[in-house]
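Researcher: Sequence recovery benchmark, item below. Answer with residues only.
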């Protein structure tokens, strides 16, 4: 295992890191997968990645990896799917708080009957909010994400 990856694993502990045999994804040879379950755990992971100067491949639902420019030097996969706390919706003010790892299908379901609609419809059953925003993915019914 790469020395920098070993330091990352030691810093985060086995609860948030899954160490595995190297696997190739989009040209990167990944030795470990980070699965933070909270914003604080994500912040700790990002801090340690920075301290170790360790590039990471970030994956939400994994539906758009082929359209990105993957960092070939990445040795760690950072999965955001566990960052999917329950939605907070205030229909009176028209404000909603969703986590980056939340699937768009789950967000649509949360808004049913509220009088509000999620203005995102990129394709892919596993598409997450964070992934849709990161990829600027859009579907046929709404404006480009940067215009929403």
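Model:
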């Amino acid at each position: 295992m790469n020395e920098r990856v070993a330091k990352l694993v030691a810093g985060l502990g086995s609860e948030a890191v899954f160490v595995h045999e190297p696997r190739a994804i989009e040209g990167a040879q990944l030795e470990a997968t980070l699965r933070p379950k909270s914003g604080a755990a994500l912040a700790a992971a990002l801090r340690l990645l920075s301290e170790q100067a360790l590039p990471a491949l970030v994956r939400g639902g994994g539906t758009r990896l082929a359209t990105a420019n993957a960092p070939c030097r990445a040795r760690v996969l950072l999965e955001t799917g566990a960052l999917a706390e329950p939605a907070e919706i205030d229909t009176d003010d028209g404000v909603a708080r969703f986590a980056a790892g939340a699937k768009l299908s789950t967000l649509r379901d949360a808004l049913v009957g509220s009088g509000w609609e999620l203005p995102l419809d990129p394709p892919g059953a596993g598409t997450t909010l964070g992934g849709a925003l990161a990829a600027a993915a859009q579907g046929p019914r709404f404006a480009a994400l940067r215009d929403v």
